[in-house]
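Forwarding the complex inputs:
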Amino acid sequence: MQTWTEKIIMFIWCGFSYVFLLSPMIVVMGASLHGGEFSAAIKFPPDEPSFQWYSKIPAEQFEALGLSLIVAAVATFIAALIAIPAALGLVRSNFKLKFAVSSVFRAPLQIPAIVSGIAFLQLYYLIFDTSGLMLAGTIPGMLLGHVFIATPFLFGTIVAVLQRFDHRLEEASYSLGAGRWRTLYRVTLPTIMPGIYSGGLYAFMVSFADVPMSIFLTAPGFVTYPVELFYAMENDFDPSILASSSLVIVFCLAMLLIVQKVVGLETLLRSGGGSAR
Amino acid sequence: MENRWIAYLIPPFIITLLLVAGSQYVFIQNSFYQDLGLGRTGTDLTLTNYIKFFSDSFYLKTFWITIKVSAIAALLTLFLGFPIAYVVARMKSKLAMFLLAGIVVSTFVTIVIKVFGLIIIFSADGLINKTLLNLGLIERAYSIIGTQEGVVIGLMHFTIGFSVLLLYSVVVTVPPSLEYAAQIHGASRFRVYQRVIIPLCAPGFVVGGLMIFNMCMGAFTSAALLGGGRILTLPVLVQRTVMMEVKYSTAASIAFILLVSVILINLFSLIAIRRLRSARLVVA
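Prediction (whole assembly, two chains):
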């Protein structure tokens, strides 16, 4: 039903958007094959392609990547432990202040991450002043902040799935003789699993990519990967940073493929993108 | 039954409330102490930091630049995001999922890496500068770092993936049958856009646009890296005030002003959603 002129306009318009959207990542991957010396200007496309910088990625970058992966994974897990009962409890119960309670769970999304960052830093200073316990620059301190920003993603997606949940499934389970816990484990949780997976993926990725929150909670020798990149870019960087960045892009692609296999992209889109924010 | 579900809700609610209220309360209270520099603060609650913010032209200019670059970035992001969302939503082939996958991946990759790519693209002997120089459109290499355009492009990269997903969810609510109906009744494709697609998507555009604007207002990383210390936005100013000047109370007051602005925009978009929904009910 579309005319040719419209198709051509849309094609060019879309093509331009896609080039805009994807070119930085493609350029980073291309330029990581930088063949020259450290001093040679980084170029795209590279002059003499080689993988030499991949073997020269310094240990600190791998340590930072490792820390980022651990923090993101554990923070997502804790966030799921908070978000699953919260979403179940909120959707199933009936009381007056439901909207207010839901807003509290979603609040971290509305607060700019940089504000949360400075807020947690000052909270940790206050805790230090009163109890002598320093949380800034430690794993628990970093985790607490990341759980804070990760929870709303899981909460949002699980609530969205639960609202479409068919209650008759649970009633059927009860009438067939299953108890409360059995129903929860065998019926309710499996049905909301796609929501948990896609919300968890978003939570993981947001935590894994975060700079504004983490930048306040790092310490020398205790830096997450995006913050390490951030500082590298503010100073001088060598092509090994491009090599490790390319590895991260490939990792993100791999995560998407896994999710595509496990829950399907449709579920991810339906429960992820819009509703979470 | 009722009580059982509320019991599920209570522990996570207390944890989250403690985290939200605890962190926010501490910094908001801090923002009301006078800043003595080097991390020291006065003991009396005052409005000094806020009075300083609203009477110092440097802070006001930063505030204005934040609003300006965020608004431009939000509009341009909508402009670039809409065609992708529309085409993918109307596509019937497998290619649609493939195209969406590209967008999802780009939302996953940290903005720092994307800024990296942007800097290479816009570097002195990068693709853009070479082409423009060869065509004779510019006389000397253009640098993206430290310019408002650079910050706008960075903010667009921060929000475009999310905005495509958001607009996609708006476009799929407009059934293609409405377009066919309009065309059967003799409307040209242009008229279909003008009278069917755009009006039906408009509420989503307004709300989505406000959300994107809000994301831009709070965006730190791309603004910091591409602003290069010359173009400052509020989030960048917050971080610099803490890290470089070690003025916690001043930073807290800037952060609070940013927070209030963002919440006000949110409230405004909530009201906008209500208005637009009720307006649509009348039309339908």
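Residues 59-276 of chain A form a domain with the MetI-like fold fold (CATH 1.10.3720.10).
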